[in-house]
Specification:
By secondary structure, the chain is an alpha/beta fold. The protein is built from 8 helices and 13 strands. Helix 4 packs across helix 5.
Length: 343
């Protein structure tokens, strides 16, 4: 997937002025995931993924006792490394760690604590510029940077499995994190039938994902499907990026289906705003079109706060409460620690 992005951006890069080149080596320190200090989110530390919002308390209470409360999530956070001397982030950098905790963990990963603890590794992610290379940038270095980031994620996942050897789990990511998570699904999880059966659902959000990218792993077709994946990237109804296409897998995060019908406004559970409050329910409708989720009929006050055309940064926030509800729904098929696949 990274190769598709880099190739598409290279044509634009030819017209840009030369920039000072960043270096690949030496790579920042290699995370040791046996040590808790290299985890952004972990059951034994307090972090942003542990935040429980008052706005979701009633929903959680409604589902209390209907499913296990110890289903862990392995979450890979999005790109938060925007500038620096090397292509890969230094996981010990204080500002980098703060950004991970106060944004991705607090407003994205926290949705998964409805089911259990969140595990999220600090990884040496590729710099944002790698997605939009400029003249003078070394494409081989960019690819190596991305591969190094994935290698960290895979090693962290193996440590996650050592700590969680049995029972269902969730895989989730956003943006660059989804790029690595879908690669993990393709090369690790789908190669192991036991892991496939343990995977309750994968949230591959904010990236382009095709069937080939996940080795043919099933996309979820309805709200109670398990052993499958969901994903979307959100845009205004008039915004059409160049990468769209029908080969991209998309699930509507309001209806949890793959059909092209517009969702009903009444089914939107509300968006999570940065103050931790739920912004007015029934705020948007959405529909699948050309490999994207189209945000339509946006109303105030959501319209006042989220009046963009590219809703990528709000892929989770816009549907946070629908996601929360759906996690409860899918977890309800787990009985005695075993996923009961619906006939």
């Amino acid at each position: 997937m990274i190769a598709r992005t880099i190739i598409a951006a290279c044509a634009l890069a030819m017209a840009l002025p030369l920039q000072a080149q960043m270096t690949l080596e030496p790579l920042p320190i290699r995370p040791d995931y046996r040590k808790i200090s290299y985890w952004a989110a972990h059951p034994d530390i307090m972090d942003g993924s542990d935040v429980r919002y008052v706005a979701s308390a009633a929903m959680d209470a409604q589902w209390a006792g209907s499913h296990p409360s110890d289903i862990p999530t392995f979450f890979v956070y999005p790109t938060l490394y925007f500038e620096g001397p090397t292509w890969n982030a230094n996981v010990l950098d204080r500002d980098y760690r703060k950004a991970v905790n106060t944004s991705a963990l607090t407003f994205q990963a926290s949705v998964f604590n409805a089911l259990g603890p969140v595990w999220s590794p600090h990884y040496r992610q590729m710099m944002y510029q790698g997605y939009f290379p400029e003249a003078g940038d070394d494409i081989d270095d960019i690819k190596a940077s991305y591969d190094s980031a994935y290698a960290d994620v895979e090693r962290a996942f193996q440590q996650f499995l050592l700590a969680n050897p049995e029972g269902p789990f969730i895989l989730a990511g956003h943006s660059q994190g989804t790029g690595h998570a879908s690669r993990l699904l393709r090369y690790v999880i789908t190669k192991d039938k036991v892991l496939q059966q343990r995977l309750l659902v994968a949230f591959l959000v904010g990236h382009t994902v095709t069937a080939d990218d996940v080795n043919g792993f099933s996309i979820c077709e309805n709200p109670l499907d398990v052993n499958c994946w969901v994903g979307w990237r959100s845009y205004g109804k008039g915004f059409y990026p160049s990468w769209t296409g029908e080969t991209l897998g998309v699930v509507n995060p309001i209806t949890w289906t793959t059909n092209n019908d517009r969702s009903k406004r009444s089914r939107h559970q509300g968006a999570l705003y940065t103050n931790g409050r739920r912004i007015l329910r029934r705020g948007v409708t959405s529909r699948i079109h050309d490999g994207t989720i189209r945000i339509e009929r946006l109303r105030g006050p959501i319209g006042w706060f989220f009046r963009w055309e590219d809703y990528h940064r709000a892929d989770y926030n816009l549907f946070w409460f629908n996601i929360r509800e759906n996690l409860h729904q899918r977890a309800s098929v787990v009985q005695g620690g075993v996923i009961e696949v619906m006939p």
